[in-house]
Automatic annotation (TrEMBL):
<dbReference type="Pfam" id="PF02675">
    <property type="entry name" value="AdoMet_dc"/>
</dbReference>
<feature type="modified residue" description="Pyruvic acid (Ser); by autocatalysis">
    <location>
        <position position="68"/>
    </location>
</feature>
<comment type="subunit">
    <text>Heterotetramer of two alpha and two beta chains arranged as a dimer of alpha/beta heterodimers.</text>
</comment>
<comment type="pathway">
    <text>Amine and polyamine biosynthesis; S-adenosylmethioninamine biosynthesis; S-adenosylmethioninamine from S-adenosyl-L-methionine: step 1/1.</text>
</comment>
<comment type="function">
    <text>Catalyzes the decarboxylation of S-adenosylmethionine to S-adenosylmethioninamine (dcAdoMet), the propylamine donor required for the synthesis of the polyamines spermine and spermidine from the diamine putrescine.</text>
</comment>
<keyword id="KW-0210">Decarboxylase</keyword>
<feature type="active site" description="Proton donor; for catalytic activity">
    <location>
        <position position="88"/>
    </location>
</feature>
<comment type="similarity">
    <text>Belongs to the prokaryotic AdoMetDC family. Type 1 subfamily.</text>
</comment>
<keyword id="KW-0670">Pyruvate</keyword>
<protein>
    <recommendedName>
        <fullName>S-adenosylmethionine decarboxylase proenzyme</fullName>
        <ecNumber>4.1.1.50</ecNumber>
    </recommendedName>
</protein>
<dbReference type="GO" id="GO:0008295">
    <property type="term" value="P:spermidine biosynthetic process"/>
</dbReference>
<keyword id="KW-0068">Autocatalytic cleavage</keyword>
<keyword id="KW-0949">S-adenosyl-L-methionine</keyword>
<dbReference type="InterPro" id="IPR017716">
    <property type="entry name" value="S-AdoMet_deCOase_pro-enz"/>
</dbReference>
<keyword id="KW-0620">Polyamine biosynthesis</keyword>
<feature type="active site" description="Proton acceptor; for processing activity">
    <location>
        <position position="73"/>
    </location>
</feature>
<keyword id="KW-0745">Spermidine biosynthesis</keyword>
Length: 122
């Protein structure tokens, strides 16, 4: 007889690399903050705070959501960005939030990876 598996924590980590993005957007801290805010809304998350840092010429933005976080790190000189949307629980859709960011940064190509961050007790 197999033991029953009980999930204690449900987590999903959606992340990837965005290539051939619009470098003007990748340098614009205010636009990137707005993109993270909109991604949280589109994903169905509860936005708690957004912090951003200008790392010339790029920008790093982290949105803290009740469900975990959304981050964008940019390298405008290479038209490149990395994106993470990590959620705990069943609320929201991290893939939808990720795809919105891809569209908003005008990426011509991207990777999308999904990792389970579940904790299962068996």
């Amino acid at each position: 007889m197999e033991a029953l598996t009980t999930k204690k924590v449900i987590g999903k980590h959606v992340y990837g690399e965005l290539y051939e993005c619009d470098p003007e957007i990748l340098m614009d801290m205010e636009k990137l903050i707005n993109i993270v805010e909109k991604a949280a809304e589109i994903g169905g998350f509860t936005l708690l705070d957004v912090k951003a840092w200008k790392i010339n010429p790029g920008v790093s933005v982290v949105g803290i959501v009740l469900e975990s976080h959304i981050s964008i790190h940019t390298w405008p000189e290479y038209s490149f960005a990395t994106v993470d949307v990590y959620t705990c629980g069943v609320k929201g859709d991290p893939v939808k939030a990720f795809k919105y960011i891809v569209h908003a940064l005008k990426a011509r190509r991207h990777t999308l990876k999904v990792a389970s961050r579940d904790y299962e007790d068996n």
